[in-house]
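Lab notebook, bench 4. Still working through the backlog of constructs that have no structural model yet. Next entry is a single chain of 1450 residues. Request: give me the structure tokens for it.
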Amino acid sequence: MALETEAKNSNATATGDAKATATKASGKAKENNNTAGGKKNLNPNSNQQNSNQNLVNGNGTAADGPAAKKKGKKNRNKSPPEPTTEAALSNGHVEKPTAVDAVEDNADANANVEKPQDGGAPDAEADGDDIDLDALQDIGITVNISSPGADLLCVQLSSMELVQEIHQLLMDREETCHRTCFSLQLDNVTLDNFAELKAISNLEQGSTIKVVEEPYTMREARIHVRHVRDLLKNLDPADAYNGIDCTSLTYLNTITQGDLLDKKRTRPDSVDCTPPEYVTPGVSDPPILPLHPNVKNAKGPQALKVLTTSAWNPPPGPRKLHGDLMYLYVVTMEDKRFHISACSKGFYINQSTDDTFNPKPDNPSHLSHSLIDLLSHISPSFRRAFQTIQKRRTMRHAFERVATPYQVYQWASPILEHTVDAIRAEDAFSSKLGYEEHIPGQTRDWNEELQTTRELPRKTLPERLLRERAIFKVHGDFVTAATRGAMAVIDGNVLAINPGEDTKMQMFIWNNIFFSMGFDVRDHYKELGGDAAAFVAPRYDLHGVRVYNAVDIEGLYTLGTVVVDYRGYRVTAQSIIPGILEREQEQSVVYGSIDFGKTVLSHPKYLELLRQAGKHLKILPHVVLNERDEPVELCSSVECKGIIGNDGRHYILDLLRTFPPDVNFLKLQDVQLCKELVNMGFPIEHRHKLCCLRQELLEAFIEDRHVNFIRIAAAHLQQLTTIKQSEKSEANPAPALEGAEAAIKVNGAEKPDDKDKKTEDTEKKDRSTSGETRTAAMVNAIREAQCNVASSNEVQASEVVKRACAAVGSLKEKEFDFRFNPDVFSPGIRHVDGEEGTVSSLAKQKVLVQEAAQFLVLTQIPAFIKEHMSHSSSPIDGQSLTESLHSHGINVRYLGKVIKILKDMPRMDYLHRIAVLELIVRATKHIYYTYMQNTEPLHLSAAISHFLNCLLTNGPVNPAVSSEEAHKKRGNGGKHNKHKSSKGGKGQQQQQATGNQNGSSSGSSNGSSASDWTLMTPRSLWQQIRKEAKVYWDWELDCDSIETAVSKFGIQRISLMRAFCLKVGIQVLLREYNFESKHKPTFGDDDIVNVFPIVKHISPRATDAYNFYTTGQAKIQQGLFKEGYELISGALNLLNNVFGALHQENGSCLRMLARLSYLLGDAQDALAIQQRAVIMSERVNGMDHPSTILEYTHLSLYSFANGHVGMSLKLLYRARYLMVLICGEDHPEVALIDSNISLILHALGEYELSLRFIEHALKLNLKYFGDKDMHVALSYHLMARTQSCMGDFRSALNNEKETYSFYKSQFGENHEKTRDSAECLRLLTQQAVLLQRKMNDIYSSGKLTSDLPPIHITPPSMGSVLDMLNTINGILFVKISRKDIVKVRSEIEKHFKTDSTENEVDDAINSIVAAANNNGEVEDSVPKDVKEQPEACKQLTNGDKAAATEATSS
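Model written out:
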């Protein structure tokens, strides 16, 4: 199985076999893949297929599986359902069906035949979950393939692959890639494309399969032409820059000048290691051009001038009867013109010219089955160019050719030559809705596909894999289609379904997807903040869809939802509930409310389904009154509507209030926030009233309460038992409990009556008390509690629980219960209040929501900052900062508060800068969206360049000039201007009335600026940004120009430009911009290349893979690297199975596997795996994404370990350049990169350069880690090494003394580190004395006397440099005995049991590791990895939560 072997044996990448693998998903595959869909009548049960047209891929087979099951049809095993999922992949992700699915097909299909009625095979299900991945691997067979005009080809295949895979393989191999229309025959019998190889009776080792050319049909001929065009365009990066067809860029092989794995080891003296200017320390504004290296020769040679369908198409009736299918027109590089006919036999040259139609064959006509063969005959330059293109294509890494799951957009692009391309033109204007023309039944019923895939069975592992793959596949297609539709809607390419209404009110249907705009139509959100609320509602709704999808309750359906921001507009794309368009909404809704709670309905089936979901989401069922004052029970917020579709499914929509409101941002009459919050300026009145708390926050809050609950209960029980023991006589329960209460106070919780006050402050005191004693006490308390619950009488035990519940504010009196009522503060909703103190008590529910909001500010924000104090996984840009905030449950609207806290922490300077930059970018985005909505399409590029000038420069953006130029260029000067401003008047009034879309209230203050973009100036824009920062984040931005922002916060303009372009979807021209330009504007309208959409959607998960991954991580943390490696390889296998070859999560797995291979001593393997991780990150995340930088640094370490010294430097230079481009030099990660660069330069004997980098690293380490830190001691030591090599012994001595004093104070005299440092000092002193004596000698006698020994400066060995590199990067191969590991493990477990706060676990591991090995650098082995443990377990798509305690390797 190719992908499987890829995971198991990463070296395979180099071999042809693995190349073949990834090509399965290759973009080329797109068309031809779809061919499979219509080529033959897919399978025997085609009638049934048509009756079920809903299917996964529109072909009607994949989802037919369950349908067939229900009907108990017996023919299911004739057409395994799974293959087609691959076969018709619409966007080119043809994943290999790894062995796993194949098992599924077999078990399932056969079982079904035997027991059609049962709808399943009990035995298959029973042992399904225990399927070991190895058992799923299948035998390989070697077959020979003979194709006309090519050598016999020998390939290794798995018996579980489909015949379809061989098609794919042949279409991607250099010698056979020009064939698309062929069948495969064995012993003159044509093979079924969807048969598994093992199902073919006479196929054995060494059989020869023949490639037989098939006659063309019209469709096959078109597919062939398109395939030829794709082959010729293969190297052209234009599609990646234009954001088409899920192509994206990768530059790894450009930077390493070819494949790293093919390189020979380099000799250190042959390496050119001078860093480019922009990489040396001290660079202020990095250039943009190096971001896209090698732009000039990326394209490859041109093979033809023109290849297009001819204007003589379609063939007239008489010619049709002669078998003509279509006509092509070709202009070769030699400037010869040919008209070509396609017939069922192939392609030939006819006698037509541009003016006369003569379809008879030319003489000679060169009839060829393949168009490429024909063109090679008639044009020698085509033959040469095509060979070159093929060579370069097959040399590329497999991952460079596969399509990504979602489109990645570039924010900078070179000038792309716009060539004549008829096929591209045809695509743009034909009614192509996303590859639908290959599918029987035309447009896809998205809703049916999305829901059918969710209904697939999921009892066994193979079933789950099949289901998850189908979900991912359909979801990917839906996102692509929705994005195209949304852009078409904004570009005015779709007719509205209500064309008579105002443009803001219009709604659209395109390709079975419903589109609506983010405006407040019909005053729906009037009470909640008008347009501002309407703008954020789709995003909150998407959050709701995400969580309900994740809970995955059977029978509860959500709509496919995608939110697209494009050209300043927000468009929501949703799949359509069957039947909803035929009736009014009022009639359809059977649950919830369509008027925010005035009329409310309920429905028993919905209550049952939502109650199940609510258990996971912590939503409290509650009762409200409807318009007739009748109580109605709800298990969600009131806005959540339930609609039963014509297909009988229960849909929920409008999930914007799934979670409880955030009271810190609502001005409410009856809510009094606590003193600390009021002092911080809360409540802040937000633009809209839809602010909700995040799911992560609720989880953290409940976990925190649970820890307290256990602690308090334990304290009670401890108290009871001590009293019991002291009075051996009859114990009176009352005094005992009073005693217990006293104990509670000591323990930092308070009396039940104070439950309105908060356990927070006390808890803080509690945490600061000596952790050790408390932990010990708690362990004992819990142990005793467990014994005592059994022994003490029932009354006491329940009393203890009751008191603990009261103390933490549980909803139920006698059990720990935390759930939230999302409607508790919604205006206009009348709740039925329960008795005081019960679950249904409204007061109690309100207090709970308030406490959660308070927990966010008083606990989570400090925890967030504390976590980043260690700089172990520091955010690099706004996106990684946002993700980190979200993982702590902190909404971005708290960014202002976070910045205020960071401002006074010099050690968090870099985070403060990133946060300020993110806030400025977000504020600017709000203003930009409004600005864009008031710009006519005619002036888009002029308006965007003007906006960027105002944002990024202080130079001439003289609005009068720019407006005049804008109109002059369009040719009708002033007239146009008048027309525009008069029109502006109306827009202005409207805007002032609505308070301006997206809520940026700038409109009302200077309405004209919004209606006519030419009036904006840098000053007015920065004033709006300041105002926005104050209104939205309650933060004072004291900047009125970019100059002040740069000088005050140290922000780089280029970083601001990058962040802003990525945030709003602008693509600028790739060139150097002079932001200081005094004479002409920095940006002209030619500098705006494109605008692209910002797409938000849910990401389907791979549950089994996730479980494998987390188990693997746990094993690694226990030091069981081998087992961990196997589990994570298993996870990668499953991920390949579900997501195909490229996906972010596959990237996380690869990084982890590379790290493990390295730790297990296999540096070569590590290099091969990490190379794939880098290419994957560049392709899937973007080439300047923070995780790409991380992958580059890892790769450089492994390539150094493999002896590629020069390469490893180049990779580090690239990583450093990207870091500086994104966030500047002042960042703790830059210190790490600089230490690495310095070490390698030192190894190469470039001491001067090496010293510059290590000095910079030392400066940063001192700033961010303080002088009492391992990083700093190491930097001093590295400096001393370099200086001693330069002969500067005095400085070297001073620096080494710093290192020595640190080691001595931290580890004591006898530690190995300290002894090493002392030895180093001795040698340096000796050399310094020698040197001094020589100098004195020269001074005194004027010449050198001969009896002094020469001074030895020994260059370091590569081995010692590698050891230092490992140390710096937190990788230590420490030898610890088995016994110590067991001890470590039990300590860790003990800590975990008692308290989940991370710091204690870290401290425990630190102290233990330090004790266990007196030769490992404690600090250094731990920070990089151990500190990330808690996070690592939480999610798969983590940053570098790499192999945890590497120190515990046995």
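Notes after review: Residues 253 and 259 are 6 Å apart (CA to CA). The radius of gyration is 34 Å. Flag for follow-up if needed.
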